[in-house]
Design brief:
By secondary structure, the chain is of the alpha/beta class. 38% of the residues lie in helices and 22% in strands.
Length: 268
């Protein structure tokens, strides 16, 4: 089984199949019914003619879920390091009244001029960037002096109960190995990484949890990540543990810790 982190990352985000499995768990069992993408979009402060760059757009769910809110005067460019993800975003968002532009971009070398963007979005992707400091410097460079970075990420307690279940049947994985890289940039340590590049940094937390009442959606979530390589006996034990907890408690409650950083006043 390949264990190299970069290999696993490329496999994870070759297309949206794994993301879809994870999104389904959140869509069905989240306690906050307003929805993450709608909440996140409400945090954006954009002028009617804003130039917006998204790094790591994935399949473009943020824009599809908020298609009724996209101002006609915005100039939006969606980028991703994965050509597969970018193709999916392009196909789904081509139906929009004002479709964005698309480009395959490495966040460590953004092909935009200095001070050309009003906002940069980097959602659930900065923890994947090999040289995050370089990427943050690039983001600060392309932002206008009045521009803002919106960077969504997770806290260290996010989905802790799922991680603990996986580690209990596969201790060789370790919690950090359940989803590689995610602890590199969190709601707890992200501000100290942003402050060398921005003078004004604050975090806004999203209030949510999972209350899971079915076994298989949670198993599908686990199998969408590096834990997909659990041995048959480990997977059987996990399935039984989840079924037992749901039978005893009526549902399995799982904490979520998610939010977005707003970083202003880029330094150059």
């Amino acid at each position: 089984m390949p264990t190299d982190a970069n290999y696993l990352l490329k496999e994870q985000y070759r297309d949206s199949v794994n993301l879809d499995a994870r999104a389904q768990l959140h869509a069905r069992f989240s306690t906050n019914r307003s929805g993450w993408f709608r909440w996140l979009f409400e945090r954006l402060e954009l002028s009617p003619s804003a130039r917006v760059l998204e790094l790591g757009c994935g399949p473009g769910w943020l824009w599809w879920e908020n298609r009724d809110r996209i101002a006609p005067g915005w100039q939006v460019t969606l980028t991703d390091f994965s050509p597969g993800m970018l193709d999916e975003a392009r196909k789904s968002l081509s139906r929009l009244e004002h479709p964005p532009s698309f480009a395959c971009v490495d966040a460590q070398a953004i092909p935009f001029p200095d001070a050309s963007c009003d906002a940069v979005l980097a959602n659930f992707m900065l923890y994947h960037v090999p040289d995050r400091d370089r990427a943050l410097a690039e983001i600060a460079r392309v932002l206008k002096p009045t521009g803002c970075l919106y960077a969504a990420t997770n806290g260290v307690q996010n989905l802790l109960e799922i991680d603990e279940l996986v580690v209990s049947v596969a201790p060789e994985i370790g919690r950090a190995g359940v989803f590689v890289h995610v602890h590199e940039f969190t709601l707890e340590n992200g501000a100290q990484q942003l402050l060398p590049h921005f003078s004004d940094v604050c975090a806004c937390w999203y209030d949510d949890a999972l209350v899971v009442s079915e076994v298989e959606p949670l198993i599908a979530y686990v199998l969408s990540g590096p834990a997909a390589h659990l041995r048959d006996e480990q997977l059987a034990r996990l399935r039984q543990m989840v079924a037992t907890k749901i039978a005893e408690q009526g549902a399995l409650r799982i904490r979520k810790a998610t939010g977005v950083f707003r970083a202003r006043q880029p330094k150059r």
